[in-house]
Design brief:
With 79 residues, the chain is α+β, with helices and mostly antiparallel strands. It contains three helices and two strands; from the N terminus they run E-H-H-E-H.
Length: 79
């Protein structure tokens, strides 16, 4: 785990519109995007509000007691 982020919004609309809104920040090629959303009427994207990269990565096994592969995990903040 190299960091965390806060979700600002979830975008859901036609792939052409999602690409128009996100292409500047997507980090992927237009070809990859359209291959991924081929034959889909609706595409989804997460708009990130704030991101934090950890100085030292955390281990899924040691810190969270889950075994990879784990694409994501919701953690409840401890106050």
């Amino acid at each position: 785990v190299i960091g965390e982020f806060e979700i600002d919004d979830i975008l859901s609309c036609a792939p052409d519109e999602i690409w128009r809104l996100t292409k500047k920040y997507s980090g992927i090629s237009e070809q990859f995007f359209y291959d991924y959303f081929a034959d889909r009427e609706i595409a989804h994207a997460i708009k990130i509000k704030e991101a934090t990269k950890y100085d030292k990565p955390l281990s899924l096994k040691e810190n969270y007691k889950v075994s990879p592969p784990q694409s994501y995990l919701y953690l409840e903040e401890q106050f």
